Amino acid sequence: MRRAMLEWGRFILIWAVCVLSFRAFAFGSYYVPSESMLPTLAVGDHFVTAKYAYGYSRYSPDFTLPEGSIPTADGRLLPQLPRRGDIVVLKPEGAPDALVKRVIGLPGDTVQLVHGRLVLNGQVIARHETGAYDYRDDHGRTVHVTEYVEDLPAADGTLARHAVLQRSDNGPADNTGVYTVPAGHVFLMGDNRDNSQDSRFPYPELGFVPLDRVVARAQFTAYTNHLCRADGALACPGGDWTSRFGRSLKP
């Protein structure tokens, strides 16, 4: 009896180590708490990420490892640079929870917003209007937005096309100075451009994000608690709940 219990205990321990290792180093799952990534991700969406995509830092596991745990110059193992357009999960300094944003600028890039238009490395990024509509936000308010598809150039010369929302082109963060992304950092923004605290707002809001704090790449939505249904004159940004299962999040 004692031997059988020891065998079961060892099996459970091995199983637990395998599960924890899988979550720490292969894939993870996250929940969307805000509207900053509409129309791509809605509040209540649960999505799967690839933790191996950009290498590993002390922030990669669900718990933060002690400083110096990874003895490399940049604190990362098997480092890979994100692509412009990737949706990433990050663990920002001074914040208790992970955030999800889109990579806009890589190290050395310049980023600016002029009348709501994204200017990357001095070039105005093309966008194409796909419609205007009203929706009810997470606080019950009716919001009017225009939806665009933005042609963000990825580093390999392809276009990372993705949808963005604008309430107007003259909001508080629609006209900015020029941001130059420092080495070892990325510039991140939400797709809901007038409702996102992102790299346009300096620390302690967010600011430039160190690469070691970018812990995963979003892969696809798994399921959603977002039960929006189009109702009369009100739309569901990105589609209603029936269209959100298994949606690819790669640009």
From TrEMBL:
<dbReference type="InterPro" id="IPR000223">
    <property type="entry name" value="Pept_S26A_signal_pept_1"/>
</dbReference>
<dbReference type="GO" id="GO:0004252">
    <property type="term" value="F:serine-type endopeptidase activity"/>
</dbReference>
<dbReference type="Pfam" id="PF10502">
    <property type="entry name" value="Peptidase_S26"/>
</dbReference>
<dbReference type="InterPro" id="IPR019533">
    <property type="entry name" value="Peptidase_S26"/>
</dbReference>
<comment type="similarity">
    <text>Belongs to the peptidase S26 family.</text>
</comment>
<feature type="active site">
    <location>
        <position position="101"/>
    </location>
</feature>
<dbReference type="GO" id="GO:0009003">
    <property type="term" value="F:signal peptidase activity"/>
</dbReference>
<keyword id="KW-0378">Hydrolase</keyword>
<dbReference type="InterPro" id="IPR036286">
    <property type="entry name" value="LexA/Signal_pep-like_sf"/>
</dbReference>
<dbReference type="GO" id="GO:0006465">
    <property type="term" value="P:signal peptide processing"/>
</dbReference>
<protein>
    <recommendedName>
        <fullName>Signal peptidase I</fullName>
        <ecNumber>3.4.21.89</ecNumber>
    </recommendedName>
</protein>
<dbReference type="InterPro" id="IPR019757">
    <property type="entry name" value="Pept_S26A_signal_pept_1_Lys-AS"/>
</dbReference>
<feature type="domain" description="Peptidase S26">
    <location>
        <begin position="6"/>
        <end position="221"/>
    </location>
</feature>
<feature type="active site">
    <location>
        <position position="36"/>
    </location>
</feature>
<dbReference type="GO" id="GO:0016020">
    <property type="term" value="C:membrane"/>
</dbReference>
<keyword id="KW-0645">Protease</keyword>
<dbReference type="InterPro" id="IPR019756">
    <property type="entry name" value="Pept_S26A_signal_pept_1_Ser-AS"/>
</dbReference>
